[in-house]
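In response to a reviewer's request, we include the raw inputs and outputs for one of the modeled complexes. The two entities were modeled together in a single run.
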Amino acid sequence: MTSRALAASAAIVVAVIGFVLGARAVALPAQEQVPFPHVEHQGLFPLCTGCHEGIPDGDAASFYPPPASCTGCHDGVREERVTWSGPTDDIDNVSFEHDAHAAELAAVGDPPQDCASCHVPAGGTRMAVAEDVQLAGCWSCHAHVANDHMADADCASCHVPLASTRFDVARIEALPLPADHGTDEFLASEHGVLAEADVGRCATCHTQDRCVSCHVDTERASIAAVPSAPADMELPVTPVHYNVPLSHTDRDFLATHGVGASRQSCGTCHTSNDCTTCHIQPLPEAVGSLPARSDVIAPGAQVVGRAPSSHESMFFIEAHATLAAASETACSTCHEESFCVSCHDAPSANEGGGYHPAAFLSMHAASAFGRDSDCASCHNTQVFCRQCHLETGLVPAGGGRLGPGYHDDGPVWLLRHGQAARQNLEGCTSCHRQVDCTQCHGVLGAFKVSPHTLGFDAERAWARSPRTCLACHVGNPLS
Amino acid sequence: MRRAASSVVLALAIALVTTAPVALEAQGFRGWTSTSVQLVELRPIGLDSVPRSEVSTDAQGRFFFGDAEVTCVLATICTGYFALDDERTLAATQDLAVTVWGLGVQGLSVTAHVRGRARAGGDVVWPRSDDEFDALLAYAQLQRGPLRVRAGRIDVRSGLGLSAFDGGSAAYGLGSYRAEIYGGRSLARGLREPQNEALRGLDGFLLDQTVLVIGALATGRPWDVPVTVHYQREILRDRSSLVSERVSFDASRAFPRARIDGSIDYDFSFQRAGKGHVTLSVPFAEGRWLVEASALRYVPYFDLSTLWGIFEPVSYSEVTARVGWSPGAWGAWVVGGWRTYADTETVVILTPMRDTGWRANAGARWAPAPAWSFDASYDLEWGPGGFLSSGQAGARYDVTASLTASLSVLSFQQIEEYRLGEGRAFGGSASASYALGERVFVSAGGSLIRHRDGGNVFTSPWNQARAWTSLRFELGGDPGLGGRGGGG
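The model returned the following structure tokens for the whole complex.
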């Protein structure tokens, strides 16, 4: 610190006595208070310290004279009675420690400054600190790199936190807006960085209530360090606003947002309720790290559940099986298994809903032949299909008939059914029982027609399932 | 579940019922219940006899009663299939699906989806309506960090299809990778019953013991490619025979301008590749155009619990192309596919059967206003076994934010090459759904299809009428999509 600066600071030691006494030089709105008539008393108390003896020493208890001392003269006899009851609540937010500043002057060998160095000279209506004193005095040490009062400022050097003031709503709203607060980037990202670097700057004009009106992560150090407003402090109503980060506008964000999701990355704006808008049990681990909406004051950037872009394709129904098979977890993020089962496990009674389209029953034969639907993936054709075919008369109660009549080639059908069977054996099983085939096929059949092709690996079949072989063969057919 | 309800499932169901009130008081739950009732009127067919004197014979020696082909073995009587009188049945389904958590143990939850069925009146037994109760899902789950353990009635979905079992599973996730192993008593596909009991009374060759299943599932995203590998093996309880042993592999990869996905499975018990496909999707013009090409190989799958597999069904291979166009409120698509079957190695008498097939589909959707949407499509399919030509058109109107009405009409012609029955059918349906608040939904509708004969044995067998209504009530958060803050 230069001697010049130190000298200026020393001047302020005394000057700020006026602040403490009620001088309101920083364009503060006047409060309902009758200022002490210093001029009328200057003859009686020529020295400021006559009344404010604690100021130079920092003794807060004796910053002001006790109100009772007024009655020494204003006893109703010598002088009329007065109602002064001591200083009113400080409505300023300036913090100035006279004794500390005086000590700094003394440390560098500078002479102490008298009160008038900073305070309005005797005869002023109030013991204010003139603005030029602030500029020349305070800023000579607490100088800003820029000349703007609030740019890159170490506010806490001169100001107390807003929560420590008695500011009313009008006074709070009148606080000036720093230039760097006016950009979109400030709200989106910069203010957090600045808060981490100097939370005192934030606290000068804001209480913690302002932070937690938007922030979900109230445990963040820079938020916790901002004092909360006293219970009786009325604060301006400020709108809650959440900027949408650029990353969220990416087309694939919905699909990829889980990667790296954590309390650190999501917890500024989102509560766990946002996650459960879409996610179901079991919830991803990151969800549990976020607070519930009921646990925080901020509403959080509430999300609206929407289907991923893949669902928007008009071909999604056809493609969803492959997508599900390739990434089951992607489905289970939003869908419970019962959601799949409600369509896949059994036909819905609601013809308009379910897996199959309307009127599917009437047309399912061709679809089954053409394999547009993979029936056997969900249905056991030997039970599900056959039961209905049996009930509707397609399958005689005694079993499938092998004679002509049903199949449309008459007697010839029997001689050419093998090709059809190998092409669409699932269709056969929807009506026929195994015994219908073994009447003729197999070593026990009437015609002992082999059901096997020339390339049939009997040895392998026996090794894997001898019971299947023994359905027709008596003993090991290979022995 | 019939009599085969396992003690595990019952215990879980009881646990669910008894703990649900506690859970409702604790952390959270979500679920839904749905009550559906449908009336079906259809016309079964039956074998009947006609006098031999009224039957004519064509040049190939086939017998006809009018236009209907019949079988004449006896001198005086011929038999054939004829449509019987209309029959009706009323089938009701009651679903309850619920997941509860907050049971006093961190990470513990219970999930159950049970379905009750009932049939009232009519001679037709609607599929599964005689199965009065099913526990489709019923398991307890413990999730601790990356580890998830389940016990009860569980299902697994993958390229191998939908598999269900009574047992346990354990899954461990690490980043984008996840591995799961499971095992238990295998349930018949789509039936939720032990395999040996599901087939009881329906066939002559039956499993006389339960089937055990073990499997492992692994998923991951190596090089940003989602991959799933699923291995599953089923054996008889006495381990005397293998029932099935398969593995599937699925992968997909999204590029900036295209997406490719594919799958294939392999059957160890028959030592052959099973189903497989590869699809390339390429969107253009910011997604307004979509061009897709697919190659598919399909093999009917049968396990060794039946004889069907050793009859050696053959595969077919199909290529498909799809072009979609969606400029704003419009959307239209065209699909074409051609397939060919592998050699069946069968001796064919007279005319060989077709071994190729093709299909085409075209459709469009139009939403001129948020409350209105129209759609129409046409399908044409021709291959071994069947021919189908069908068209449908529909409209949907959101009368209010809560009330939606829809209407559709359709017409189709199908010829089942190996079976009797052809002709044209016309019909339509109308339905409406109403949301009573955010959690209660009511819907109802009806459909009518009338068959015009194609000159074959049947007389209007495709005639059918349906009416249905359903009531759905959601509990807790939306269990299907969107939790609305129900948990967390």
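As requested, we also summarize the result in words. Confidence is low (pLDDT under 50) at residues 1-8, 478-488 of chain B. The helical segments of chain B are 7-25, 195-198.
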